[in-house]
């Protein structure tokens, strides 16, 4: 079954407000087993609304709109649905009583214009709105070529919309689905260390249209997320259906996979340190303090992450004010600097590991080579340094260098099991 979500309001089409109702509704529709094929956002304009509703119920089996049910002149949803159905509005006495009672309970007189909220397109029914004055509207629209669309118009206020979804819309959709009721489950696998196309080529045939379970790939600031989706008649059947695909991904990608669900690299690093009873301190330049922020906020970080220092580019460049000994010949971006930074911070905090990341050059021409930065890791058994070339968008640099540093430590901890304690 195909669904369409319509969001109504000038504040949405003008960009003033973000349309989070469509996001929320599409997630719920997906969980109920429906595929949302269209999102339509429409301004407070009667003709545009009439067209949006007619188009939606011509191509979708379930149409859900939000917004435009208030009492003011720019609230056009009920008039638009009536016009799109070539009918008129009629008063629903029960809805009027509900609105009058709400006003009485708030010790306010009902303004005359609120009466319009008890008017419904002929042939439609009200959807109760226990905590708001605007009841929703539901109507079944017959299509010329056979079949029908179930239409649900809900208020824009997110809390009211959600409550009405739960109490009325979801049960009505479940009834409509009958035997064809499905559960949709997702599982996400998080990866770091390669680009999107390299990752895709390591998973031959997996990210392909028509494959079941479906596997989607998205990238966000150098973290890659694989999303496996199954659609079965129970949650258990969904889990069973996705397990072979999950196993296959782990086999193909090895330790490029760092976690699943809401895991981030810092959560995994803290977990590995805690398992090994090891401690960490960080020293970073050019990352805006991301390492310290992420590690400091990670779950149960206190015993593993003892602290960090953030150095400005100017302090690094000036040499003598850098909070560690600068190698005499090196520029402020070099493997020698990364080495000294990692050792200095390990010593200062007395930790098992000192993790450092250097600044990245502002141009590609530094030292004649492409843009690069260095990650240093001081361990109880010696210092490791890695150079990373970087040519991406400037906005991503901070995230990428902080994540490279975390990943360097993660792989070291996985590889070495545990270095001897300090
Ligand atoms: P009412 O007029 O009774 O408040 P309504 O159905 O007319 O309800 P709108 O006036 O369109 O709803 O929206 C009310 C408020 O709900 C908006 O000011 C906004 O804060 C929020 N809202 C509306 N639509 C959305 C949306 N698509 N996503 C997120 N928030 C929304």
Quaternary state, please?
Answer: single chain
Strand proportion, as a percent range, falls in 25-35%
Major sheet attributes: 6 strands, mixed
What is the element string, with H for helices and E for strands?
EHHEHEHEHEEEEHEHEEHEHEHEHHEEEH
Instruction: List cofactors, ions and other ligands.
Output: adenosine-5'-triphosphate
Unreliable residue runs = none
Structure in words:
The chain has 422 residues and is an alpha/beta fold. It contains 13 helices and 17 strands. It has helices spanning 10-13, 20-31, 46-59, 77-84, 93-105, 158-177, 196-201, 235-253, 265-275, 290-297, 313-317, 335-349, 397-416; strands spanning 2-8, 35-42, 62-66, 89-91, 119-121, 125-127, 136-142, 148-154, 183-191, 214-220, 223-232, 257-260, 280-285, 305-311, 353-357, 372-379, 382-389. The strands form 4 sheets. A 6-stranded mixed sheet has the order 2-1-3-8-7-6, sandwiched between helices. Strand 16 and strand 17 (382-389) form a beta hairpin. Helix 2 packs parallel to helix 6 and helix 3 packs across helix 4. It starts with a strand and ends in a 6-residue tail after the last helix. It binds adenosine-5'-triphosphate (ATP). The site of adenosine-5'-triphosphate has 19 residues, from helix 2.
Brief descriptors of the model:
422 residues; 6-stranded mixed sheet; single chain; 5-stranded mixed sheet; binds adenosine-5'-triphosphate; elongated; alpha/beta
